[in-house]
């Protein structure tokens, strides 16, 4: 269970000197909508009313000319803002006949993330791998127990493929002994226990180094994303479809 309450979490916040007490959301693209855009691969899908319109995002670097049907393995990277640009980085690092797809939903909880990829996950096999990053936003809302339950169910219904669960990152915008960071430690400990009893699920620790996070302390900076992407690739090579 999550310790403390929302008021305690707010009281623990100690942003670095010179940093405002509120966080500004980095826009992915300028668009006339109040909804949070979902980044799908190199496209941003924005729901406006009952219509979906696609806005071209940055071109993914170093794309191969092979079509998805010619790929031997598929990597599906799904998560909240912590995984922004990671699919692009992974695609530029990884070698071989691999298809990389990234779906990012900033601010989303675990429930939204798992539902967002239901269709994509259904077609995956034991030769593919999901990289899943969820739970951080749930912890901040005192919903860590619910998030853990949803992740457990996600693994249970997707035993036909491999899953890499990303541990929740440390929050440098809170003091170390804050209720939030204690909850993060507890959440990650339970994730580790979960992956020990699941044949096709492993855990990947996000680098816990202050210099790899933004000045505000909530998200990884460019260097942190690069390091994380290299960790993802290393784990994919050693712990995905090679496990029979």
Task: Walk me through the structure.
- There is one protein chain.
- By secondary structure, the chain is of the alpha/beta class.
- The chain has a single domain (7-31, 71-239), classed as SGNH hydrolase (Rossmann fold, 3-Layer(aba) Sandwich), CATH 3.40.50.1110.
- The chain is built from eight helices and eight strands.
- Strands 3-2-1-5-4-6-7-8 form an eight-stranded mixed sheet.
- Helix 2 (86-93) packs across helix 8 (222-239) and helix 6 runs parallel beside helix 7 (179-196).
Gyration radius over CA: 18 Å
- CATH homologous superfamily heading: SGNH hydrolase
Q: What is the rounded distance between the termini?
A: 34 Å
Order of helices and strands: HEEEEHEHHEHHEHEH
**Residue-averaged pLDDT, rounded?**
76
Spans of at least 5 consecutive residues whose pLDDT stays below 50 are 1-8, 14-69
Level-1 CATH class name: Alpha Beta
Number of helices: 8
**Basic shape:** globular
CATH topology: Rossmann fold
Q: What is the count of β-strands?
A: 8
| Fraction in beta strands | 15-25%
**Helix percentage range:** 25-40%
Largest sheet descriptor: 8 strands, mixed
């Amino acid at each position: 269970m999550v310790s403390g309450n929302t008021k305690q979490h707010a009281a623990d916040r100690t942003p670095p000197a010179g940093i405002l007490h509120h966080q500004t959301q980095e826009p992915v693209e300028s668009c006339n909508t109040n909804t949070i855009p979902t980044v799908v691969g190199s496209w941003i899908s924005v729901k406006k009313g009952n219509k979906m319109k696609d806005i071209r995002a940055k071109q993914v670097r170093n794309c191969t000319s092979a079509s998805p049907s010619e790929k031997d393995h598929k990597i599906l990277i799904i998560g909240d803002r912590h995984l922004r640009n990671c699919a692009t980085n992974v695609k530029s690092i990884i070698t071989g006949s691999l298809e990389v797809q990234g779906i990012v939903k900033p601010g989303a909880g675990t429930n939204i993330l798992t539902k967002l990829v239901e269709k994509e996950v259904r077609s995956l096999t034991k030769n593919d791998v999901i990289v899943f990053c969820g739970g951080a936003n749930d912890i901040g809302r005192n919903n860590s127990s619910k998030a853990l339950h949803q992740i457990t169910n996600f693994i249970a219904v997707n035993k036909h493929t491999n899953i890499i669960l990303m541990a929740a990152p440390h929050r440098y915008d809170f003091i170390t002994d804050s209720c939030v960071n204690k909850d993060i430690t507890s959440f990650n400990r339970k994730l580790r226990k979960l992956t020990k009893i699941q044949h096709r699920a492993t855990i990947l620790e996000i680098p816990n180094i202050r210099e790899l996070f933004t000045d505000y302390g909530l998200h990884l900076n460019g260097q942190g994303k690069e390091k994380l992407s290299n960790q993802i690739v290393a784990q994919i090579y050693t712990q995905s479809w090679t496990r029979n």
